[in-house]
Amino acid sequence: MAQERGSAAGSIGPKEVDSPAEVRREVADLLREWSLAGHEDVVGDALLVASELASNAMLHAGGITVFAAELTDRAVSLHMSDGSREVPEVLPATTPSGRLHVGGHGWRMITKLARDIAVTDLGERGKRISVTVALTPPPG
Question: Which residues form the signal peptide (predicted)?
Fold first, then answer.
C-alpha cells in the first residue's frame, strides 16, 4: 500500500547490523511498500547508497556500529555509525598517470546520489554519516 503525502512510512533502528547485505535487506524491506511505478531507479539509488555506506564502514572504518533509517513519502534518510573518526573524501577518479583508480568510488557515488550529507564526530565512539536519498523522481 502506498503512503499518503506527508506521512511517515516507517523506520529502522537504531540497531546493530553485521554486513552491507543486511543493511540492503533492511532498506529494501522498508521501501517495499513505497510505490514509485515507473521510477524504480530512485529505489535502486537508495539501495546503492545504503550498500556503499555499509561497505565503506566495513572496509575503511572497522565496521558498522549502529544503523538507522527513516522513510517518508519523499525520501529515505540513512544513518551509519562506525568506529573511525576519519571523514570520507572523494578521491580523484584517475591516478596521476591517467589510469582509473581501482576502488575508492563508493563515496563519490554516495555524494552524487544523496543530498543533505552530514558527518557527525562522535568523539571516542567514531562518527555517524547521515544522508538523505530523494524518492521522488526528478522532473522530466
Answer: none
